Amino acid sequence: MPIKHPNLQPEPMNGAIPAWHGKIAAGDLQPICQGVRDGGGRLLALWGSDWRVTQHGFVLHTLLVNEAGLVCLNLPLAEDHPVYPDISHIFPQANRMQRAAYDLLGIYAHEGGDHRKWLRHGAWHSGSFPLRKDFDAAQSRSDELDAYPFVHVEGTGVHEIPVGPVHAGIIEPGHFRFSVVGEKMLRLEQRLGYTHKGIEKRFESMTLQQGAKLAGRVSGDSSVAYAWAYAMAAEGIAGITPPARALWLRALFLERERVANHLGDLGYLGSDVALSFGFAQFWILKEQMLRNNAALFGHRYLMDRIIPGGVTADLSAEGRRMIEEECAMLEREVRLLRGIYDDHAGVQDRFIGAGRIEPKLAAQLGLCGLAGRASAQAWDARVQFPCAPYDRLDVQMATYRNGDVAARVIVRFDELLESLRLQREILVNLTGGDELAMPLEKLPGNGFGVGMVEGWRGEVMVAVHSNAQGNLARVHPHDPSWQNWPVLEHAVLDNIVPDFPLINKSFNLSYSGQDL
Amino acid sequence: MYQILKQIVKTGIKTEAAPQPDEAMRVEPQRLQQQILDVLGRALAIRHVDAGSCNACQLEIQAVNNAYYNIEGLGIKFVASPRHADILLVTGPVSRHMETALKLTYDATPEPKLVVAIGDCARDGGIFGASYASCGGVASVIPVDVMVSGCPPTPSAILQGILTAISAQK
Ligand code: SF4
């Protein structure tokens, strides 16, 4: 059992990842969180549910993680006064999650220092809450402009540069407000939520199968990770384990997604420091991989290849040879390009020292995923909680202490090469019958499951609650970008404005994944 | 430097032939006049606006810049401001929070102001549909000339959509 507390009787949850859940009282939330924090644990996600119709009141779900596994604390909240104790002084990353929980569900953190809206701009009235079951979309509609209260920095020579929401490049929308003196950044404040499209509400009108497609589109660059996490949560509720071959194929897809994204990022990181050669080369490799995905599995980004119960695409003997050749080609080319990046004085000059997050700050702010590992945060779900088939793969985690752009580049290179090794291992092990999925039509009633997968960016978590009829009552997808966006605000401090695109790219966070 | 040059020579030229325009994608053929064909006389400028996508459509737009599709080789470039753009490529369902920004971008774009909606979401809201937070397809917010289906559409389909928008009646 991961947490010992006299007022918590955690029940184990079914599923591929060790997880428990338990009811707590309001007074226990902060002490339990503090205990987990003191023990080196982290806050993974925070969300709420409307249980007024089925049981009573609202519930706050706080998902914590430590070495032993996940623990979901369920705190019932009164219908007429849904408040809970603020935990953002224990876990700073809770700040935006708590504000989002208010915007969407109307539950709020008592005494929190920051009560500004987060996901709501002006599309629905304050005081109306989309994730409440009795939400009336037409009545709540508003056309207000955002009018977000940014924090202003004053002083001689300080001026503000607002950027976005529409950006200059081919990227997602968000607003950044820089306070600068000369070229130096004194402060960055982010305003996100522009791509909020009602994903969580949408899940509630979907079948289990439709939900799998939606999960794979929470953040398209992490489609495999989300679809797997969603399937894992559903399979946990249903108490089933997909066929072995399906699990091997899922890991193959996940590693291919990691390689494709790392290739793309390494290319952009080159062109961001004026080495357009890097973009040209890495994107040739990425394109070859995407084409192989299309030829072998029917989709360039492997969307909809994972379904609750298994997978929808198999690999032939011929396909296996193609991947072997591809891995050999990538290994050769990536090593060569890595040598070029390493030896290029101009590139290294820009990479080293830029956007540094010291390990101590990373731990304090909960930096996770690949950016976390570049700042000595040694967490990788494939290593800590190796669910099948990772229990047979012995993943080597890449960690560095420098926490700068250079370190995030090194982690990408290391993980990319490790992913190639893993793919080869998977191919060797890809045996076992030809069964690809076991049928999972519908969930049992009143279930609760969580799935967590180490996507290329970091841990992707999906929580699924089913109602009495076994339909989706509440689905909460959580992107590691929630944790990492606020850290980017720190990473840019004292760097110069022209380095912002480079630093930003070195994190490459998802807007859609956090805007939902 | 030697390594870089060697690698460039070894890589060779990857660019493939561009696809043909597809009249089936056209929404309003009458909007297209001879003057737009003239646009091809200089570099055609494209501005991308993500109005709320899942980001996979962007990945494919980024891919049209790779050596295989080499969009710049066709005389088409991505620009940083709508004021320099001939065409807007719009991805995603239009979130209510992006509605105003999209309209402003459209207003700031000079004629011929062509709009290509990229992906099933941009076509009709796709999997996200229309909701309290989503307006649905791009055409519910600004006029659309060409729609490219797919989730996400392939880089060739995107290129084809762009070429369809700029080629006059054929
Ligand atoms: S069409 Fe598909 S890939 Fe494109 S934004 Fe919509 S869900 Fe994402």
Helix content of chain A: 40-55%
> What is the strand content of chain A?
15-25%
Kindly name the structural category of chain A: alpha+beta
How many β-strand runs of chain B? 5
Shape of chain A: globular
Report the CATH architecture of the largest domain in chain A: Orthogonal Bundle
Largest Cβ-defined interface: A-B, 59 and 49 residues
CATH topology (fold) name of chain B: Rossmann fold
How far is the N terminus from the C terminus of chain B? Answer: 47 Å
Structural domain count of chain B: 1
Question: Based on the structure, what is the oligomeric state of the protein chains?
Answer: heterodimer
Total count of strands of chain A: 15
Sheet with the most strands: spatial strand order of chain B = 2-1-3-4-5
Element order of chain B: H for helix, E for strand: HHEHEEHEHEH
**How is the main sheet of chain B built?**
5 strands, parallel
What's the CATH class label of the largest domain in chain A?
Mainly Alpha
- Count of discrete domains of chain A: 2
Helix fraction bin of chain B: 25-40%
Poorly predicted tracts of residues of chain A: none
Q: How would you state the average pLDDT of chain A, rounded?
A: 94
What does this entry look like structurally?
The complex is a heterodimer of chains A (516) and B (170). Chain A starts with 10 loop residues before the first strand and ends with a helix. By secondary structure, chain A is of the alpha+beta class. The mean pLDDT of chain A is 94. Helices cover 40% and strands 17% of the residues of chain A. The radius of gyration of chain A is 22 Å and the shape is globular. The longest helix of chain A is centred in the middle third of the chain and has 29 residues, at 244-272. In chain A, helix 5 packs antiparallel against helix 6, helix 6 (223-238) packs antiparallel against helix 7 (244-272) and helix 8 (276-297) packs antiparallel against helix 9. Chain A folds into two domains: 11-140, Beta Polymerase, domain 2 (2-Layer Sandwich), CATH 3.30.460; 199-514, Cytochrome-c3 Hydrogenase, chain B (Orthogonal Bundle), CATH 1.10.645. Chain A has helices at residues 26-38, 94-105, 137-140, 199-203, 208-215, 223-238, 244-272, 276-297, 317-343, 345-351, 359-365, 369-373, 381-384, 405-429, 481-491, 500-507, 512-515, and strands at residues 11-12, 19-23, 42-50, 58-66, 69-77, 83-85, 108-110, 158-163, 175-181, 184-191, 306-307, 310-311, 448-454, 459-466, 472-478. Chain A contains 17 helices and 15 strands. In chain A, the strands form five sheets. A five-stranded mixed β-sheet of chain A has the order 1-2-5-4-3. Chain A has a three-stranded antiparallel β-sheet with strand order 8-9-10. Chain B has a single domain (33-169), classed as Rossmann fold. Chain B starts with a helix and ends with a helix. Chain B is built from six helices and five strands, in the order H-H-E-H-E-E-H-E-H-E-H. Chain B has helices at 2-11, 34-39, 56-63, 99-108, 120-124, 155-166, and strands at residues 44-50, 76-78, 87-91, 114-118, 146-148. Chains A and B meet through helix 4, helix 8 and helix 9 of A and helix 1, strand 1, helix 3 and helix 4 of B. The complex binds iron/sulfur cluster. Iron/sulfur cluster is lined by residues 53-54, 56-57, 91-92, 119-121, 126-127, 151-152 of chain B.
